[in-house]
Amino acid sequence: MAGHGTDAHTHGADRLCEAGNRVYSRAVRRGRVPRADAEPVPCLLDLALLHPDPDDMQWLVPTSPQEVMTRLLRGVYEEVTASQARVGTTVAAVEWYAGLGGREQGPVEGVAIRVLDGLPRIRAAMDQATERCTSEVLTVQPGGIRREDELSEGLHRALEMCRRGVRMRDLYTHVARHGQGLHNYMELMGDAAEARTLDEVPERLILFDRTVAFIPANSDRTIALELRHPAVVDYLVTVFERLWRLGIPLTSPLPETGIDGITHRERSIAALLAEGHQDAVVAERLGISVRTCRAHIARLSETLGAASRTQLGVRIAQAGLDGPPRAPELLPVTAPGAPQSPTDL
């Protein structure tokens, strides 16, 4: 491989170099390529996109595009799962350190972490952040369908930010799509706001201008943390951006599961059941009621022909529903390339 530096090939399978793209595409079309053709592009062997032909070692055969897509999607899924776990760990650690430092009794602009105890203090801090926001609001809104009174309560603040040129991006669970209030809200917001949905999202998060973030500090959200430490805020922005890339725009339909009789939501339920979660945990993570969750599980059992929960677990694995969707099913939304009130934490 003399004359071919490695710097041009320090990339992953999700962003092939131009030369690698040409050789791999040729290999897929023809079924194999001479080993000499791959010498200028060592990345194809390093990434296991080409491997020796067992019948003739002078030739290389390609890994199927379907297998490569599945590998890429599984890597993204594992990365996001790890990121979500790190968010939970970070929040717990931040709360512990904040407790050691004591609770501030008044707004202090320079404080990196401030504990807001009680809804009045939370609303006051967020109203102040809303008034000072000049460019962008990012929010994660877990749970299910947003109540119209919740959306209406913060509408005037959101419209005022829009008039100042503030852009808004919001992540919801897929369940939120079924609330007409959210769609009405998005119409009123126009081009200033964009919403995407996922099967599940982390705990509530609101970021203003990438400089201050608010997260809940207890289960009933009567205590919140106001975070201004640049490293913590940057980390939360990174988590949001990665989830955003995986989200499906509210205006786009959910992808088909590729399995007759099984909906997108039932596929998500099946994956969580396969992880060993109880019905109540599955319902909470997907933003639906336990009753609705159990109704979906019953339909899933009927569709898969399972007579018991144990048998359902086996059938879920046999149908390939125990992990992320296979690549061909996600192909329409994977390219190799509304908001609730921001003052309601």
Automatic annotation (TrEMBL):
| A Pfam family per the record | GerE
Q: Where is this region: Disordered?
A: 323-345
Gene3D superfamilies per the record?
Winged helix-like DNA-binding domain superfamily/Winged helix DNA-binding domain
Coiled coil segments of this chain: none
Q: Which domain of life is it from?
A: Bacteria
Task: State the organism named in the record.
Answer: Streptomyces caeni
The name this protein carries in UniProt is LuxR C-terminal-related transcriptional regulator
Q: Which residues form the HTH luxR-type domain?
A: 255-320
